[in-house]
Amino acid sequence: MSDTLILGAGGLYPPLVEQLVDDGALTWPHGGADRRAMLDDHAADIRVVVSSAGVGADARLIDALPNLELIANFGVGYDATDVDAATARGIPVTNTPDVLDDCVADLAIGLTIDVMRAISASDRYARQGRWKSDGPYPLQRRVTGAKVGILGLGRIGQAIATRFEGFRCEIRYHNRSRKDVAYDYEESPAALAEWADVLVVATPGGAQTKALVDADVLAALGENGYLVNIARGSVVDQEALIEALQHDAIAGAALDVFTDEPGIPQELCDLDTVVITPHVASATHETRRAMADVVLANIDAHRAGQELPTRVN
Ligand code: NAP
Protein backbone atom coordinates (compact mmCIF):
# COMPACT_ATOMS: atom_id res chain seq x y z
CA MET A 1 0.00 0.00 0.00
CA SER A 2 2.90 2.39 -0.47
CA ASP A 3 0.72 4.24 -2.95
CA THR A 4 -1.85 5.39 -0.39
CA LEU A 5 -1.83 8.92 0.97
CA ILE A 6 -3.73 9.49 4.22
CA LEU A 7 -5.07 12.98 4.67
CA GLY A 8 -5.86 14.59 7.99
CA ALA A 9 -4.88 11.50 9.93
CA GLY A 10 -5.63 13.34 13.18
CA GLY A 11 -9.32 13.10 12.30
CA LEU A 12 -9.16 9.44 11.38
CA TYR A 13 -9.48 6.32 13.50
CA PRO A 14 -5.92 5.63 14.74
CA PRO A 15 -6.05 1.84 14.18
CA LEU A 16 -6.99 2.48 10.52
CA VAL A 17 -4.05 4.83 10.12
CA GLU A 18 -1.73 2.31 11.82
CA GLN A 19 -3.02 -0.47 9.59
CA LEU A 20 -2.39 1.56 6.43
CA VAL A 21 0.99 2.87 7.63
CA ASP A 22 2.10 -0.67 8.48
CA ASP A 23 1.41 -1.42 4.83
CA GLY A 24 3.64 1.47 3.82
CA ALA A 25 1.12 4.27 3.30
CA LEU A 26 2.21 7.89 3.47
CA THR A 27 0.59 10.17 6.05
CA TRP A 28 -0.13 13.84 5.88
CA PRO A 29 -1.40 14.16 9.41
CA HIS A 30 -2.17 17.85 9.70
CA GLY A 31 -3.27 18.55 6.16
CA GLY A 32 -1.26 21.78 6.15
CA ALA A 33 2.31 22.98 5.95
CA ASP A 34 3.95 19.81 4.71
CA ARG A 35 1.57 19.43 1.76
CA ARG A 36 3.98 20.98 -0.79
CA ALA A 37 6.90 18.78 0.27
CA MET A 38 4.71 15.68 0.28
CA LEU A 39 3.44 16.42 -3.20
CA ASP A 40 6.90 17.33 -4.54
CA ASP A 41 8.24 13.97 -3.41
CA HIS A 42 5.31 11.63 -4.01
CA ALA A 43 2.59 13.13 -6.23
CA ALA A 44 3.12 10.66 -9.07
CA ASP A 45 3.12 7.62 -6.75
CA ILE A 46 -0.17 8.28 -5.02
CA ARG A 47 -3.11 6.22 -6.26
CA VAL A 48 -5.43 6.28 -3.23
CA VAL A 49 -6.36 9.14 -0.91
CA VAL A 50 -8.08 8.47 2.41
CA SER A 51 -9.92 11.64 3.38
CA SER A 52 -12.20 12.63 6.25
CA ALA A 53 -14.91 15.11 7.18
CA GLY A 54 -12.25 17.52 8.39
CA VAL A 55 -9.73 17.24 5.55
CA GLY A 56 -11.09 16.29 2.16
CA ALA A 57 -9.50 16.12 -1.26
CA ASP A 58 -10.03 19.49 -2.93
CA ALA A 59 -9.65 20.21 -6.66
CA ARG A 60 -6.07 21.43 -6.23
CA LEU A 61 -5.00 18.20 -4.55
CA ILE A 62 -6.82 16.08 -7.12
CA ASP A 63 -5.12 18.08 -9.91
CA ALA A 64 -1.74 17.58 -8.24
CA LEU A 65 -2.03 13.77 -8.20
CA PRO A 66 -1.72 12.59 -11.84
CA ASN A 67 -2.19 8.89 -11.05
CA LEU A 68 -4.96 9.16 -8.47
CA GLU A 69 -7.45 6.28 -8.81
CA LEU A 70 -9.61 6.39 -5.65
CA ILE A 71 -10.70 8.77 -2.89
CA ALA A 72 -11.94 6.73 0.07
CA ASN A 73 -13.67 9.02 2.57
CA PHE A 74 -13.70 8.03 6.22
CA GLY A 75 -17.24 9.23 6.98
CA VAL A 76 -20.62 9.33 5.27
CA GLY A 77 -20.41 13.09 4.60
CA TYR A 78 -17.96 13.92 1.83
CA ASP A 79 -18.64 17.65 1.41
CA ALA A 80 -14.97 18.44 2.11
CA THR A 81 -14.02 16.59 -1.09
CA ASP A 82 -14.55 18.07 -4.55
CA VAL A 83 -16.59 15.22 -5.99
CA ASP A 84 -17.16 17.07 -9.28
CA ALA A 85 -13.40 17.43 -9.80
CA ALA A 86 -12.94 13.73 -9.03
CA THR A 87 -15.77 12.71 -11.35
CA ALA A 88 -14.34 14.85 -14.17
CA ARG A 89 -11.16 12.77 -13.90
CA GLY A 90 -13.11 9.51 -13.64
CA ILE A 91 -11.94 9.00 -10.06
CA PRO A 92 -14.41 7.19 -7.81
CA VAL A 93 -15.21 8.59 -4.37
CA THR A 94 -16.48 6.28 -1.62
CA ASN A 95 -17.98 6.98 1.83
CA THR A 96 -19.09 5.00 4.90
CA PRO A 97 -22.92 5.00 4.98
CA ASP A 98 -25.23 3.02 7.30
CA VAL A 99 -22.64 1.85 9.85
CA LEU A 100 -22.70 5.14 11.75
CA ASP A 101 -26.46 5.83 11.73
CA ASP A 102 -27.10 4.43 15.21
CA CYS A 103 -24.33 6.31 17.00
CA VAL A 104 -25.14 9.62 15.30
CA ALA A 105 -28.83 9.15 16.13
CA ASP A 106 -27.98 8.23 19.73
CA LEU A 107 -26.04 11.48 20.08
CA ALA A 108 -28.87 13.50 18.52
CA ILE A 109 -31.22 12.13 21.18
CA GLY A 110 -28.69 12.84 23.92
CA LEU A 111 -28.19 16.40 22.70
CA THR A 112 -31.95 16.97 22.52
CA ILE A 113 -32.52 15.74 26.06
CA ASP A 114 -29.53 17.74 27.28
CA VAL A 115 -30.63 21.04 25.75
CA MET A 116 -34.32 20.63 26.73
CA ARG A 117 -33.66 19.40 30.27
CA ALA A 118 -30.44 21.40 30.79
CA ILE A 119 -28.39 18.38 31.84
CA SER A 120 -25.02 20.01 31.16
CA ALA A 121 -26.11 23.43 32.43
CA SER A 122 -27.58 22.02 35.65
CA ASP A 123 -24.47 19.86 36.10
CA ARG A 124 -22.41 23.07 36.01
CA TYR A 125 -24.86 24.71 38.42
CA ALA A 126 -24.57 21.83 40.88
CA ARG A 127 -20.77 21.66 40.67
CA GLN A 128 -20.52 25.40 41.30
CA GLY A 129 -22.40 24.94 44.60
CA ARG A 130 -25.29 27.01 43.35
CA TRP A 131 -27.92 24.49 44.43
CA LYS A 132 -26.99 25.38 47.99
CA SER A 133 -26.55 29.13 47.42
CA ASP A 134 -29.26 29.88 44.85
CA GLY A 135 -31.80 27.09 45.40
CA PRO A 136 -33.38 24.57 43.04
CA TYR A 137 -32.55 24.71 39.35
CA PRO A 138 -35.22 26.39 37.15
CA LEU A 139 -37.85 24.18 35.53
CA GLN A 140 -37.14 22.98 32.00
CA ARG A 141 -39.08 21.48 29.07
CA ARG A 142 -40.48 17.97 28.64
CA VAL A 143 -38.96 15.85 25.89
CA THR A 144 -41.66 13.16 25.84
CA GLY A 145 -44.42 14.19 23.47
CA ALA A 146 -42.50 17.09 21.92
CA LYS A 147 -43.02 17.95 18.24
CA VAL A 148 -39.83 16.98 16.42
CA GLY A 149 -39.05 18.33 12.96
CA ILE A 150 -36.34 16.49 11.06
CA LEU A 151 -34.63 18.46 8.31
CA GLY A 152 -33.07 15.73 6.16
CA LEU A 153 -34.92 12.46 6.71
CA GLY A 154 -32.29 10.17 5.23
CA ARG A 155 -30.51 7.22 6.82
CA ILE A 156 -29.53 9.13 9.97
CA GLY A 157 -32.70 11.23 10.06
CA GLN A 158 -34.79 8.03 10.01
CA ALA A 159 -32.75 6.53 12.84
CA ILE A 160 -33.35 9.71 14.85
CA ALA A 161 -37.08 9.64 14.07
CA THR A 162 -37.39 6.00 15.17
CA ARG A 163 -35.80 6.85 18.50
CA PHE A 164 -38.10 9.83 19.06
CA GLU A 165 -41.11 7.58 18.47
CA GLY A 166 -40.09 5.90 21.73
CA PHE A 167 -40.59 9.26 23.41
CA ARG A 168 -44.13 9.47 21.96
CA CYS A 169 -43.04 12.47 19.89
CA GLU A 170 -44.97 13.63 16.85
CA ILE A 171 -42.58 13.73 13.90
CA ARG A 172 -42.61 15.72 10.67
CA TYR A 173 -39.86 16.26 8.13
CA HIS A 174 -38.63 18.26 5.19
CA ASN A 175 -36.48 16.91 2.34
CA ARG A 176 -36.31 18.17 -1.23
CA SER A 177 -38.50 15.20 -2.11
CA ARG A 178 -41.26 13.45 -0.16
CA LYS A 179 -40.59 9.97 1.19
CA ASP A 180 -42.91 7.04 1.62
CA VAL A 181 -43.02 7.30 5.42
CA ALA A 182 -45.65 7.62 8.12
CA TYR A 183 -44.50 11.14 9.04
CA ASP A 184 -46.12 14.29 7.67
CA TYR A 185 -44.16 16.38 5.18
CA GLU A 186 -43.60 20.13 5.50
CA GLU A 187 -42.98 22.14 2.34
CA SER A 188 -39.98 24.14 3.56
CA PRO A 189 -37.43 24.34 6.39
CA ALA A 190 -39.27 27.41 7.73
CA ALA A 191 -42.65 25.63 7.73
CA LEU A 192 -41.08 22.68 9.56
CA ALA A 193 -39.46 25.03 12.10
CA GLU A 194 -42.73 26.91 12.62
CA TRP A 195 -44.47 23.65 13.56
CA ALA A 196 -41.67 22.04 15.59
CA ASP A 197 -40.62 22.29 19.23
CA VAL A 198 -37.27 20.79 18.20
CA LEU A 199 -35.68 21.15 14.77
CA VAL A 200 -33.08 18.43 14.16
CA VAL A 201 -30.73 19.03 11.22
CA ALA A 202 -29.56 15.84 9.46
CA THR A 203 -28.90 16.87 5.85
CA PRO A 204 -25.55 16.59 4.08
CA GLY A 205 -23.30 19.66 4.08
CA GLY A 206 -21.95 21.42 0.99
CA ALA A 207 -23.10 24.18 -1.34
CA GLN A 208 -26.65 22.85 -1.77
CA THR A 209 -27.51 23.07 1.93
CA LYS A 210 -25.41 26.11 2.87
CA ALA A 211 -27.32 28.19 5.47
CA LEU A 212 -30.49 26.18 4.88
CA VAL A 213 -31.24 27.09 8.49
CA ASP A 214 -31.05 30.89 8.25
CA ALA A 215 -32.42 33.79 10.29
CA ASP A 216 -35.92 33.24 8.89
CA VAL A 217 -35.95 29.56 9.86
CA LEU A 218 -34.71 30.43 13.34
CA ALA A 219 -37.41 33.11 13.66
CA ALA A 220 -39.97 30.48 12.65
CA LEU A 221 -38.61 28.08 15.28
CA GLY A 222 -39.30 30.82 17.80
CA GLU A 223 -38.60 31.53 21.43
CA ASN A 224 -39.86 28.13 22.60
CA GLY A 225 -38.01 26.13 19.94
CA TYR A 226 -34.73 24.23 20.11
CA LEU A 227 -32.22 23.59 17.33
CA VAL A 228 -30.16 20.37 17.24
CA ASN A 229 -27.44 20.10 14.58
CA ILE A 230 -25.56 16.86 13.99
CA ALA A 231 -25.19 17.45 10.23
CA ARG A 232 -22.59 20.05 9.24
CA GLY A 233 -21.88 23.55 10.56
CA SER A 234 -22.39 24.96 7.06
CA VAL A 235 -26.08 24.01 7.07
CA VAL A 236 -26.82 26.59 9.79
CA ASP A 237 -26.06 30.32 9.49
CA GLN A 238 -23.89 30.40 12.61
CA GLU A 239 -23.95 34.20 12.93
CA ALA A 240 -27.74 34.23 12.75
CA LEU A 241 -27.85 31.42 15.30
CA ILE A 242 -25.64 33.34 17.75
CA GLU A 243 -27.83 36.41 17.27
CA ALA A 244 -31.01 34.39 17.91
CA LEU A 245 -29.58 32.73 21.02
CA GLN A 246 -28.23 35.97 22.47
CA HIS A 247 -31.67 37.56 22.15
CA ASP A 248 -33.58 34.48 23.38
CA ALA A 249 -35.28 34.35 19.99
CA ILE A 250 -34.95 30.55 20.26
CA ALA A 251 -34.92 28.54 23.50
CA GLY A 252 -31.60 26.77 22.97
CA ALA A 253 -29.29 24.88 20.63
CA ALA A 254 -27.35 21.64 20.83
CA LEU A 255 -24.49 21.53 18.35
CA ASP A 256 -22.04 18.81 17.35
CA VAL A 257 -20.81 20.69 14.28
CA PHE A 258 -19.60 24.22 13.57
CA THR A 259 -18.78 26.46 10.63
CA ASP A 260 -15.04 26.66 11.18
CA GLU A 261 -14.02 23.49 13.04
CA PRO A 262 -12.25 23.05 15.35
CA GLY A 263 -13.05 26.68 16.12
CA ILE A 264 -16.10 27.30 18.28
CA PRO A 265 -17.23 30.93 18.68
CA GLN A 266 -16.81 32.19 22.24
CA GLU A 267 -20.34 33.60 22.04
CA LEU A 268 -21.70 30.04 21.88
CA CYS A 269 -19.49 28.86 24.74
CA ASP A 270 -20.73 31.75 26.89
CA LEU A 271 -24.40 30.73 26.69
CA ASP A 272 -25.96 28.27 29.13
CA THR A 273 -28.72 27.57 26.59
CA VAL A 274 -26.18 25.98 24.26
CA VAL A 275 -24.93 22.38 24.48
CA ILE A 276 -21.65 21.78 22.65
CA THR A 277 -19.95 18.56 21.56
CA PRO A 278 -16.80 18.60 19.39
CA HIS A 279 -18.02 16.72 16.27
CA VAL A 280 -18.19 13.37 18.05
CA ALA A 281 -21.47 11.94 16.76
CA SER A 282 -19.86 8.84 15.23
CA ALA A 283 -16.99 8.73 17.71
CA THR A 284 -17.37 5.36 19.42
CA HIS A 285 -14.95 2.43 19.23
CA GLU A 286 -17.59 0.26 17.60
CA THR A 287 -18.66 2.70 14.91
CA ARG A 288 -15.19 3.98 14.05
CA ARG A 289 -14.02 0.35 13.61
CA ALA A 290 -16.97 -0.32 11.33
CA MET A 291 -16.23 2.85 9.33
CA ALA A 292 -12.57 1.81 8.98
CA ASP A 293 -13.68 -1.58 7.69
CA VAL A 294 -15.78 0.10 5.00
CA VAL A 295 -12.79 2.24 3.93
CA LEU A 296 -10.58 -0.87 3.74
CA ALA A 297 -13.27 -2.82 1.85
CA ASN A 298 -13.38 -0.08 -0.78
CA ILE A 299 -9.58 0.04 -1.12
CA ASP A 300 -9.41 -3.76 -1.35
CA ALA A 301 -12.18 -3.87 -3.95
CA HIS A 302 -10.43 -1.19 -5.98
CA ARG A 303 -7.16 -3.12 -5.93
CA ALA A 304 -8.94 -6.29 -6.95
CA GLY A 305 -10.70 -4.51 -9.80
CA GLN A 306 -14.11 -5.22 -8.24
CA GLU A 307 -17.17 -3.02 -7.86
CA LEU A 308 -16.72 -0.54 -5.00
CA PRO A 309 -19.13 -1.26 -2.11
CA THR A 310 -20.05 2.34 -1.33
CA ARG A 311 -19.26 4.54 -4.32
CA VAL A 312 -20.99 7.96 -4.37
CA ASN A 313 -20.18 9.30 -7.87
P1 NAP B 1 -28.60 10.62 3.51
O1 NAP B 1 -29.14 9.25 3.76
O2 NAP B 1 -28.15 10.99 2.15
O3 NAP B 1 -29.73 11.65 4.01
C1 NAP B 1 -29.68 13.01 3.77
C2 NAP B 1 -31.11 13.54 3.67
O4 NAP B 1 -31.04 14.96 3.50
C3 NAP B 1 -31.89 12.97 2.50
O5 NAP B 1 -33.11 12.48 2.97
C4 NAP B 1 -32.10 14.16 1.56
O6 NAP B 1 -33.35 14.07 0.94
C5 NAP B 1 -32.00 15.34 2.51
N1 NAP B 1 -31.53 16.55 1.85
C6 NAP B 1 -30.45 16.68 1.04
N2 NAP B 1 -30.34 17.93 0.60
C7 NAP B 1 -31.39 18.61 1.11
C8 NAP B 1 -31.84 19.94 1.00
N3 NAP B 1 -31.20 20.85 0.23
N4 NAP B 1 -32.95 20.31 1.67
C9 NAP B 1 -33.62 19.41 2.42
N5 NAP B 1 -33.25 18.12 2.57
C10 NAP B 1 -32.13 17.73 1.93
O7 NAP B 1 -27.38 10.94 4.46
P2 NAP B 1 -27.09 10.35 5.93
O8 NAP B 1 -26.30 9.12 5.83
O9 NAP B 1 -28.36 10.35 6.71
O10 NAP B 1 -26.10 11.50 6.47
C11 NAP B 1 -26.54 12.83 6.57
C12 NAP B 1 -25.40 13.74 6.95
O11 NAP B 1 -25.13 13.66 8.33
C13 NAP B 1 -24.04 13.45 6.30
O12 NAP B 1 -23.96 13.91 4.96
C14 NAP B 1 -23.10 14.19 7.21
O13 NAP B 1 -22.90 15.52 6.77
C15 NAP B 1 -23.84 14.21 8.55
N6 NAP B 1 -23.11 13.40 9.55
C16 NAP B 1 -22.57 14.01 10.63
C17 NAP B 1 -21.88 13.26 11.56
C18 NAP B 1 -21.27 13.89 12.78
O14 NAP B 1 -20.27 13.38 13.26
N7 NAP B 1 -21.84 14.95 13.32
C19 NAP B 1 -21.72 11.88 11.38
C20 NAP B 1 -22.29 11.29 10.26
C21 NAP B 1 -22.99 12.05 9.35
P3 NAP B 1 -33.61 14.70 -0.52
O15 NAP B 1 -32.51 14.21 -1.41
O16 NAP B 1 -34.97 14.23 -0.92
O17 NAP B 1 -33.57 16.18 -0.33
From TrEMBL:
Residues 39-313 form the D-isomer specific 2-hydroxyacid dehydrogenase catalytic domain. This is Hydroxyacid dehydrogenase. PANTHER family: 2-HYDROXYACID DEHYDROGENASE YGL185C-RELATED (PTHR10996:SF178), 2-HYDROXYACID DEHYDROGENASE-RELATED (PTHR10996). Residues 110-281 form the D-isomer specific 2-hydroxyacid dehydrogenase NAD-binding domain. Keywords: NAD, NADP, Oxidoreductase. CDD domains: HPPR (cd12156). One of its GO terms (cellular component) is cytosol. One of its GO terms (molecular function) is NAD binding. It comes from Dermacoccus nishinomiyaensis. Gene3D superfamilies: NAD(P)-binding Rossmann-like Domain (3.40.50.720). Pfam families: 2-Hacid_dh, 2-Hacid_dh_C.
